[in-house]
Amino acid sequence: MASVRLLSPLTGVVLPVTAVPDPVFAEGMVGPGLAIEPLRTATQTVVAPADGVIGALHPHAFALELSEGRTILVHLGIDTVSLAGSGFTLHVQRGQAVRAGDHLVTWSPLDVHAAQLATICPVVALQAEPDLLTVLVPEGGTVHAGEPLLDWA
């Protein structure tokens, strides 16, 4: 399989996925990855990390289906499903083809924080082998939406 470069879906500080306060992500049950603690801004636009097709889609999370059976899951905050879409604006539909950098969702990390929910965002390679992922940003480093984040061999 060809290596895929994944862009950061949002702007924030890169953390290990073990920092996510949810065992499904922290323990790698759905796959390996990392987490991004977003800048606490009133509005932030989430972009497509690669070319692909929108698979599962919720206001607070999406799965992007890439070539060769690979899928990336991006979850905006933890327990944000409880907000029932409030504070999230979708710019795409399920089944839609997107290009890396396309705007997918606008949300407010500030509002999520105000609702006393964790704003940390897991970015996970579903069902991938951990040794196939290379993180391109050092832990604790800041990444901007659309900048290189991961290589998936």
Q: How would a textbook summarize the main sheet?
A: 8 strands, antiparallel
Order of helices and strands: EEHEEEEEEEEHEEEE
* CATH A-level architecture: Distorted Sandwich
Tell me the distance between the termini.
Answer: 7 Å
Number of helices: 2
Give the CATH level 1 class. Mainly Beta
Structural Rg? 14 Å
Shape: globular
- Supply the helix-strand structural class: mainly beta
Number of domains: 1
Low-confidence stretches: none
Strand content: 35-45%
CATH superfamily: Glucose Permease (Domain IIA)
> How many β-strand runs?
14
Helix content estimate = under 10%
Average of per-residue pLDDT values: 96
- Provide the spatial order of strands within the biggest beta sheet: 9-5-6-7-11-3-2-13
CATH fold label: Glucose Permease (Domain IIA)
Structure description:
The protein is mainly beta. The chain has a single domain (4-131), classed as Glucose Permease (Domain IIA) (Distorted Sandwich). It contains two helices and 14 strands, in the order ββαββββββββαββββ. It has helices at 23-26, 109-114; strands at residues 4-7, 12-16, 33-38, 44-47, 52-58, 61-65, 71-75, 88-90, 97-98, 103-107, 121-125, 133-135, 142-143, 148-152. An eight-stranded antiparallel β-sheet has the order 9-5-6-7-11-3-2-13, with no helix packed on it. A hairpin with a 5-residue loop joins β6 (61-65) and β7 (71-75). The longest helix has 6 residues, at 109-114. It is globular and about 40 Å long. The mean pLDDT is 96.
